[in-house]
Amino acid sequence: MNATLLRSAFYIAAICGIYLAAAMFVPAMADLYYANGDWQVFAICGFMVGGTSLVTAVAMRGNPPPFSRRLGFFLVNLLWMTFALVGSIPIFLAREDLTFAQALFESVSAITTTGSTVLTGLDESAPGLLLWRSLLQWMGGIGIVALGLFILPFLRIGGMAFFKMESSDTSDKPFARMASFTRAFLAIYVGITIACAVSYDLAGMSHFDAVNHALTTVATGGFSTHDSSFGYFDNPTLLLISSFFMTLCSLPFSILILFVVRGRLDTLRDPQIILFLSYLAIAAFLLALYISLDGQMDFVNALVQSLFNVSSILSTTGFASTDYTAWGAFAVVMVFFLTFMGGCSGSTAGGIKAYRFLILYNMLSTGMKKLIYPNAVYSIRYGRLSVDSETQRAVSMFFTAYILLWAFGSLAMAAFGYDLITATSAVLTALSNVGPGLGNIIGPSGNFSSFADPELYLLSVMMLLGRLEILTVAVILMPMYWRG
């Protein structure tokens, strides 16, 4: 890694720091409007971060080198660390009396759109702090989609955007039409956020709640302004609205761009969209049927509740309308497996993602055929497209790394003294960026406030690894990366 690449990466990180500093004045104004003294914290942090970032940007400014994989790997990690550290500063200095580990955990959970929280008493929390958490998730969602659309396909780590971006050289030159796609994406992202906020407001939320929940719904983040999340509102209409927007934002934004901008109806036949919507519908129906047959509620109410909570888990949003672990063993086991799955590539959702399951299934199917006809030639398909060996290798590496990290993290949590369900689900929800885990401590009716600092640092790393597709982080830890 040469000095020019490092300087360029830090220059870009400093520019992002300036944007974050500017964003801090939004919660400052919210606190000032509601006469809360925390406005001074956000204002001081805004000036402090902005000044430091500006000095750094001036010092690091220079002719940028050509974008390369080496720069891409380093830049992605540096930007997410910058967002996490800068985002934690006002949380740490606010009046919640948090340790730095707790503030960092909250910030990482926000920018990775995980939604796990160490805060309690959200109903009485300062409005500026609540809005800052929501803004971090919303901005994190923008970064996540940009990562999936432009960076990961170029780095050959993940993302299916290059299968859909109409020009044959898009996968090799991801920034060739970045400006047009970025404008379209931002317009759609902001438009969906406004539509969601207006829908929440019309359905009965206060203006403040509607804005906050819209920001975290579109980002599939799941931070709420109330401890009981959507259970606070007790409104089936809100559950249906939220289910729609969570599902919409779990779809690939590259597909939404082509559909909205160019009217490409055929893009909606993307195999991962069909798979994602299929297992969402099946899981919601089966869970509703189980709840109604168990006599807990009638089928219609059960379907509304199951659709909302299944959508929340599969989209990795993490909202909850009730403690769904109280529905019975079938619900708990289903939630456990849904936590692995996630949404589509190029969306704000986390998890393993639908396209990887499709490719893994086709690899397994082809492997079985080769056992019968060893000399036959079979190609791995993604719909009508052939999947090259590099993509197959990336999918296999990600899946293997995901399972190994989950096992390692679970053992580490067990060493800290947690039971099997808490240990395994805490690491799983962090890697998949879902939010709530299972069990009495971190289930949908609990939070992570009782975790000590070492556990929070571990889970913060897991959230970052999961959001950056694991291999993006693993690459820069290799000595080979830093040589040459």
From TrEMBL:
Q: What is the first-listed, main subcellular location in coarse terms?
A: membrane
What does the UniProt entry say about where the protein is found? Cell inner membrane; Cell membrane
Question: Is the keyword Ribonucleoprotein assigned to this protein?
Answer: no
Q: Which GO terms describe its molecular function?
A: metal ion binding; potassium:chloride symporter activity
Biological role stated in the UniProt entry: Low-affinity potassium transport system. Interacts with Trk system potassium uptake protein TrkA.
Spell out the family assignment given in the record's similarity comment: Belongs to the TrkH potassium transport family.
Q: What is this protein called?
A: Trk system potassium uptake protein
Q: Which organism is it from?
A: Martelella lutilitoris
The taxonomy runs: Bacteria, Pseudomonadati, Pseudomonadota, Alphaproteobacteria, Hyphomicrobiales
